[in-house]
Write a structure and sequence with these properties.
CATH superfamily of one domain: Tetratricopeptide repeat domain
Strand content: under 5%
Structural class: mainly alpha
Helix content: 55-70%
Order of helices and strands: EEHHHHHHHHHHHHHHHHHH
Shape: globular
Distance between the termini: 36 Å
CATH architecture of one domain: Alpha Horseshoe
CATH class of one domain: Mainly Alpha
Radius of gyration: 25 Å
Length: 384
């Protein structure tokens, strides 16, 4: 996550009595030191207030609000910056969304932290931060940065909980948190979030919800039905996923096998069994589990199942079959960088280096920061 070392680039200075940052802004309190952002980290401290720009002080304030949450002058800094720039919160939030959309993750995170510092009680901002950290975790996990991904997931969960803990409840907080819990395979919590979402929008008419709102209602109900019909809120399923993801595969496999005995046609359970077996290197057994998952209702619609099956086929030497499986997976999820990257790795195994390069280049078009694709292209370049 972005480091608090950003505070090293600021220093504090007291401005003379009667100073203002703009003609319409409040007068500066000469007893409260203002943070100043250095133009360059190696620049010396400038004590002559006349040589400082307004932007340096405003940037310094944003840095303090972002990274020094317990600063004793935070309330004063909030009042000052919103007095000088009344629309700054909206302006920065829009910039953060744009940066995240372009996957400029570090800058987006810095901006979101500053926006949150300006107004820590704004639940809409808190929800946006939860969504941002959720997305950043997914990006890191695609790049095999699992520890970083776990840290961002923890941050996302904290912000989702804050967004849901509001006097004026925000339906979208529950809707988005529901998908977060789905990702973590915590189906009980996911179901609860989607049920809360439906309860909050139950009295709204379709014309008030609009097309997107109607879709969300239908999607939430669909997910609730699937969780209930497949008994996925069962503690045994949740515990199995948690154990396997934490490296306790044998214990997790024991739990998921017990679940399958009672729920033999749930594709998610067979997928989880295959995932645990694959992590243990038991590729043939894992392959059979993934094939079983595809036989169950809904299992043949999941690209991740095909991706995992292809990994097992690659490990058991079935390279031609693995390629066919990955192509099928890609037809379901055309921008899934894990699938495209695996196609690249498979082509390398088959000595199809130019085709491999094309796949890795596609990965980088989707995610320029993908470390696996970057490394593989560098290796291919070195061989020329």
């Amino acid at each position: 996550m972005v480091s608090t070392n950003s505070l090293d680039s600021i220093y504090f200075i007291k401005l003379p009595e009667g100073s203002v940052l703009s003609p319409k802004a409040m007068k500066i309190n000469p007893e409260i030191p203002l943070p100043v952002q250095k133009k360059n980290p190696e620049d010396p401290v400038e004590q002559d207030a006349a040589k400082l720009s307004e932007e340096q002080i405003l940037s310094g304030i944003l840095t303090v609000l972002a990274y020094d949450k317990k600063n004793e002058n935070s309330e004063y800094y909030r009042k000052l910056i919103t007095d000088v720039r009344p629309g700054i919160k909206k302006e920065l939030a829009e910039a953060a969304i744009l940066k995240a959309r372009n996957e400029d993750w570090d800058l987006a995170e810095e901006i979101w932290l500053a926006v949150n510092g300006i107004d820590p009680q704004d639940k809409a901002i808190i929800l946006n931060m939860a969504i941002f950290f959720d997305q950043k975790a997914d990006s890191d996990r695609r790049n095999s940065l699992n520890e970083d991904a776990d840290a961002y997931d923890e941050a996302a969960l904290d912000y989702y909980k804050q967004a849901m803990d509001s006097d004026k409840e925000i339906p979208d907080a529950y809707f988005n948190a529901g998908f977060f819990y789905l990702k973590k395979r915590d189906y009980g919590e996911a179901k609860g979030c989607f049920e809360s979402y439906l309860g909050l929008v139950a009295d709204e008419k379709d014309e008030e919800l609009g097309e997107n709102g109607i879709y969300k209602k239908e999607r939430a109900q669909e997910i609730i039905n699937k969780i209930s019909n497949r008994n996925l809120e069962n503690d045994r399923f949740r515990d199995a996923y948690k154990l396997i993801s934490e490296g306790q595969e044998e214990k997790g496999l024991e739990e998921i096998r017990k679940f399958i005995r009672d729920n033999p046609v749930v594709w998610n359970a067979w997928f989880l069994l295959g995932w645990g077996l694959r992590r243990l290197g038991r590729f043939e057994d894992a392959k059979q589990a993934f094939l079983k998952a595809r036989e169950c209702e809904g299992g043949d619609e999941n690209a991740d199942t095909l991706n995992e099956l292809a990994i097992c086929q690659m490990e058991t030497g079935e390279l031609k079959e693995a390629k066919e499986t990955l192509v099928d997976a890609l037809s379901m999820d055309s921008e899934n960088t894990k699938i495209i990257s695996n196609l690249g790795c498979l082509c390398l195994k088959m000595n199809q280096n130019e085709e491999a390069r094309k796949y890795f280049e596609v990965v980088l078009e989707i995610d320029p920061d993908d470390k696996i694709a970057t490394a593989q292209i560098a290796k291919l370049d070195a061989e020329i």
